Amino acid sequence: MGEAADRSEVSLAAIRETLDLVHAQMGSMDARMGLLDTAYQQVASQLDLHSCVVSDHTRVMDAIERRQEVMAQHMAATAEAVARLCSSKAPSVQAMEEIPGATTVAGTGIVHQIPASGRRGAPPGGGLAPGSTSTTRPPDPGRGHELVHGGEGLGGGDGGRGGDNMGGGRLTAIKVMFPRFNGEHPRIWRDQCLDYFRVCNVHPTMWLTAATILEGNAAHWFQAYKLKHEVVGWPDFITAVEAKFGVADHRNFMNELLSLKQTSTVDEYCSKFQELVFKISGHNPHYDDTFFVSQFIKGLKYEIRAPVASQIPETLDRAMLLAHVQQDVQAQKPWAGRQLAGHRAEPAPL
């Protein structure tokens, strides 16, 4: 019995050691499982990051493909225009200048031939009369494009070499420079661009390429804008330009008009007032003369304001004429030197 008990104790001790070893191995396995779980999470994070990179790359590639399609359209339009020019055997700029019956419109590097009116009749649409010639001045960077005509006069005469051409008609060389934009007056610039596209017969797919020749602050803005937005055509571009530049012009012009006062001569006051009227009407053409007349009279000097208001002018031109007349009347008075030296003090309200 004693030996059996000893063997049982030895077996129990061996079992305990085995269990301890098993527990130790299970703890080691738990630690390894924790490491595997951490590694799995790291791999999953890297896969998510890789998926984001692939998604961004896909979007970039899609944008590049769209731009390539737009460029392909532009190139096709250009090739079509060149093919038309080659098929019609259009003369060069130098040849057009040497042929008295030719008209050139320069600005896009393309020469267009435009028939002028006949010699015996008045040119339609206010064109040059027969016998006149045309010259081109260097463009003023602030003015965009300029059309300059010259010659022996609008009334007649051969006015140059070469005689008549195209049934007695005489054609004129006109060079049109593309209007530049520096961030000021975007609506005026937009209208100038549309006029240029129409005069030079620019294909709509080329409008954006031509219009993105910007200057100053506008050029810096567009450089940054292209990095954040995709501009695929003229409508998107001109909408972004008008949203960025000139958005507060209407309000600023109106505030300036409402606070404008005559501080010097009537001529200077009228010039500034009319400039603001033109700018405001460009944003909202529905203001009537009653508003502008009342505001014009309100800004006049006291000694001129009352006589002008008493005449109840109905138009702005009439009010300006009366202001000039009243200034001349005031200048003839003996005390005019003291009175017109500055703005007369306003009467104190009752």
From TrEMBL:
Pfam families named in the record: Retrotrans_gag
Organism: Lolium multiflorum
TM region positions: none
UniProt-annotated stretches for the region Disordered: 116-166
Residues covered by the Retrotransposon gag domain: 210-301
Ranges of Basic and acidic residues composition bias in the record: 140-149
Superkingdom of origin: Eukaryota
Protein name: Retrotransposon gag domain-containing protein
Composition skew (Gly residues), residue ranges: 150-166
